[in-house]
Amino acid sequence: MDRRALFAGQPDWLAHTLTTAGRSCPEATTTLPGGRLVRLDTGLLRFEPGQPVSGAPALILSAGVHGNETAPIELLNRLVEDITTGVIRPRIPLLLILGNPPAMVAAQRFVEHNLNRLFQGAWKNYPDGYETRRAARLEATCQAFRDRHSGPLRHYDLHTAIRPSRREKFALYPFVEGRQVPDGELDFLAAADIGTLLLQHQPATTFSAFGAETLGAESFTLELGKVHPFGHNDLSRLTALNEALAALTEQRPSPGQAHRQPPEVFRVVHEILNTGEHFRFHIADDVANFTDYPPGTLIWEDDTTEYRVGPEPEAIIFPNPKVPVGHRVGLMVRRCSG
User: Fold this and answer.
1) Which one is catalytic: 223, 271, 277, 306?
2) Catalytic annotation present for 223
3) CB atoms within 10 A of CB 313
């Protein structure tokens, strides 16, 4: 089967995924000079190298878990294009995922349920719908990939943010008790021009948390700028990440690694939750991620509790007061010293 037949006559993987969004497609395989590319289902590809590097990690790359976050989707589509045309010849196993095709078609974050809150089996707690079934499918596909490759595993889940950020690109490291970020991952982030790393503080039900906790992967959520529609992304801003991923898949040094500083590390110090009808949030609606607040600043209050910034400056990320009671309104983070 040739490359075009793998995508059922569509010009590329993204076009095929959008055309078949919301329904399954049969498995199909094409042979490339460096290995085999298998279309597992809509938005799911697996690459198996003909001559893998012994001891090298397998890699899961995902994008489009939120359908309107299009720059990472276009980046992965370009990576697949480079693989199928021989520009890149991976020497490690790859699992490539476009997470939520119907939301991509609708240009929405999600259709019924936020897919990035449905992992670690959380989908079982929601009414049946496309996203719950897709979460179960993605978990099973990733577990099957893990079962095929028992060695080191990496998972990078690529996103963009709804609001601007004072730190355009940043990584989130899911919480797993007792683990630390390996130097090799810090090197990758530096090569990818991701200058900020946030250590998360508790277990979660995100896709990257599933990668870390269930699959045992070195797993990150990578936030890569701001949301834009398809065709309106400046992918030149992701050149360093594109080059770092190409180098990782081909198991060669990344050209940008030696010239960049390791990321600054932040830690969560407070999770803001909507406490109910008397909850008052004192952050403006248009504030950017990683906006700093000086000690003593009142961040939120209700009739019995308040939260003020502690003795050192803190920054806010993901502020969103328009969430149901009990859900996260935002996170307060502080730069780690040393």
Assistant:
1) 223
2) yes
3) 13
